[in-house]
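Case study 2.
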Amino acid sequence: MGQANLQSSSTVPLNFKNVSFIKNPSSISGKPQTQFTSLENPSQKPQNKGGFSSIELIKEFTEHGLFEDAITVYVRMLQDGFQVQDFKFFPCLIKSFGGLSDVKRSRQIHGHVLKFGFLVDVYAVNALVGLYFKCGEITDAVQVFDKMSERDSVSWNSMISGFYQSEDYLDSLMMFSLMVKEHGLFPNRVGCLSALSSCASTKSWICGREIHGFVLKNGLETDEFLVSGLIEMYMKCGDVRSAEHVFNSTVNKESLRTNTVIWNVMISGYVSNECLSKALELFVEMLEFGLKPDSSTLVAALVFCSQLLDLNLGKQIHRLTLTRGFENDIRIQTALIEMYFKCCQPESGLKIFRRCCNGNLVAWGAIISNSAHGDCPFRALELFCNFMLKYGFPDSQMLLAVLRSCSSLALKSKGMEIHCLAVKTGAISDLYVGSALVDMYGKCGDMESAQNIFSRLHCRDLVAWNALICGYSQNELVDEALAAFCDMQREGIRPNTVTIACIVSICAHLSARSLCKEAHCFVIRQGWKSNVLVSNSLIAAYAKCGDINYSCTIFENMHERNQVSWSSIISALGMHGDVDRMLVYFEKMKQASMKPDHVTFTSLLSACSHAGRVDMGCKFFQSMVEEYKLQPQVEHYTCMVDLLGRAGHLRQAYDLIMDMPCEPDDRIWGSLLGSCRSHGDEKLAKVVADHVFKLDATSIGYRVLLANLLEDLGKANEVANVRSIIKDTGLKKQPGCSWIEIDNDIHIFVAGDHTHRRSEEIYAVIESLTLEIKRAGYVPRLPLRSLMPDEADF
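Prediction:
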């Protein structure tokens, strides 16, 4: 608001609209009060003899937060003829206007202060600065401050705390610096606290240390609020040692030693810096010291139980919450729900939710979010639908959780419903919801929709770019992913470990070892080589690029390994047929107390299949079910069918498919069909082929496989029938494609293609090799040229 506008507002009547009735009318006159809507020239009415008592009422109402009542008393005083020139409580009255956070009425009282010459009163102007900050009008607050003829320490403190509350942390720190260094004024407790909190929010460690020095110099180190602020600042800046020094200095001070807030800040700081054992030790020390934990203490304790995955400790703290009478505290209920979900006891979390469920959005958000993050995405969707039926529209956090469930389940139809709901509720403008939609469509294979959502985002942050790049990567759109990666950096967005993990997976898909090394070098330069996510991706990438030794080296050099790390190295070794070394790592995995999951057993069974280790594969399958209580999925049955089929146990493989609790797909039948061809079992092959073609009638690959089997058996007529079906249905096989990287140059070859510049030399070498293997006694099998008009189709 400009100064000219303020001056013009003073020449017209000031309207105070929508002022409510006084909450206790009898406290003024004993009669119900009317609603005052206008403020006329007070000099035209006689002075109110009861002015003093009314002024005291304004002060009392303001101190008790009855802001409407305070304003109503002031309007009545004016109507009764009170002379504004004699009014000494404008700072108090302005505070009442600020409490309403009403910009229009705030400007009216500003105009009234200006009209009657009270802008020379530093206390009134300080109140105006605070008023505009509370209304969110930062520009107006700055203009009022800039035009002050006189400023005191309260003026500066109001600016420091106002900028902090408006989340303008840098300006808050700038005001602190100007106040101390250029004007020689000393901030009060509120100013120091706001500056420290600004340092914590911006992780400005150096500024925080300067403020710490100022606090010590001015003898404020015994102030419990500043001690808490210093600890929080150091913890958020990652300087745990300095935070410990501040905390330890309070132990010898009786006034600070028993302050629960200081202990809470310290425990929470340990948790946020992943010093979980120290957090636990301090919590126990607090109890031994005789301090009674409050709700904040118990929430922090439950958080480190969640991160430690310590269910027994979590249950003990649960009992402590009941003893302390906090069972109905929504923050503690939410922390308990999360703790039980993280510690793999979702039913206990659901029990707490059902007991506390009363329409509270926080509780609903916690249960839906934890279900989506865990292994219960279907339950998250079910709970979300229940919430919609009972309470109506959700908030953005619930939408994020349910979109995550749709992504993990690849439920595009449900995701589209959530998309429509986000548009209807206006949550589509939320950057996080938009990024979650990009991720959902990408995981559902609809990259066109993902691109459309991404292009409409008003602001594209790292999360949004990662969602797009990972979507391209998962859908094997390599060129698009690399182009997006370059575009992201052109827009000034720096990649993080998630971005690099996606890029590394693209290198693996291309089997481009040089690109993989470039990504690896980037990781080292950024200092991410110890990051578990990136290391896991590099293990898989180097294995797919043919360098299994480098995969093992990365694994051995990892300081921290999770379940994915072990599964990745086992899969890499299995891929390279190094079964013996794979078994060694599997034993080490168990010794490290890492429980193998479905992915681990898929890798083990696949390796056993390719190595012909039938007995070993059967033992792994049995161990998976009986020892680890894992329900086999289609991919595990496919590995077992392939294992048995390769070894010639065709009937056993067929029986296994028929006994599957889940529906077999075309791949598992196709695997058995390939084994039938290898072992010449025509009868079973025809039965299996019927199953395959019922599931996928357009599959030319399986029909060619059947034709090859029939040709091996000399069934010329049946081969002709297969050829007729292929031609009649218009099926055409996608040409085979392969590539190789030589001296950082990738050479691509398509079946039947002669476009390579050295194709004559290449085909000459192929012909020479064919003659050599024939001399060795092997008869190479050439494609069935009669099945298709173009030999390149095979």
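Confidence is low (pLDDT under 50) at residues 1-52, 784-794.
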